[in-house]
Amino acid sequence: xxxxxxxxxxxxxxxxxxxxxxxxxxxxxxxxxxxxxxxxxxxxxxxxxxxxxxxxxxxxxxxxxxxxxxxxxxxxxxxxxxxxxxxxxxxxxxxxxxxxxxxxxxxxxxxxxxxxxxxxxxxxxxxxxxxxxxxxxxxxxxxxxxxxxxxxxxxxxxxx
Length: 160
Known about the structure:
By secondary structure, the protein is mainly α. About 75% of the residues lie in helices and about 0% in strands. Helix 4 (about 85-105) packs antiparallel against helix 5 (about 115-145). The chain is elongated.
């Protein structure tokens, strides 16, 4: 099948294509999950006519960027390994989200408070997102250097 060869040659064969698609799918789903988990508090602030805390806005923005990126990068005929710097940027954005909310909620005792329990669960979703973006970043760097075709690093014109 010609479509299979074209789709998989950019991702390291058929197995690489499957792994890439599964990782991107989970990045998409977990990005939407973060939007929902943190959006609850943003919506409550909107209804109460109080300011939205910047930490929650930041988490929703990172979740949105992640979900959109994963959706675009799931397209099989796009050489997404060339965009590995964006994967690395999203990885660092997730480190910040995990750091902020991990510091706020990991040691917190929920004591039956559903909001605290939800946020403690959100911290672990943040960690999963961070790890998925680390994996896709590492995979992108690996595929980028593997598929360079032994061209020079700076201009890409000379054979090495």
